[in-house]
Amino acid sequence: MDRPLRVTCLRGRTSDRTDGAGAGAEALARHLGGRVIGEPSPGRPRNWDEDLPEARPVLEAAAAELSAALDQAELPVLTASDCSICIATFPTVAARVPDLRFLWIDAHGDFNSPDTTPSGFLGGMCLAAACGRWDAGWPETIDPQAVHFLGVRDLDPGEREDVERAGIETGVPPEGPVYVHLDCDGIDPEVMPVQFPVPGGLGLEEVRDTLAALAREGRLVGIEVTALEDPAMAETVARLLPIDHST
Question: How does DSSP classify residue 192?
Answer without folding.
Answer: S
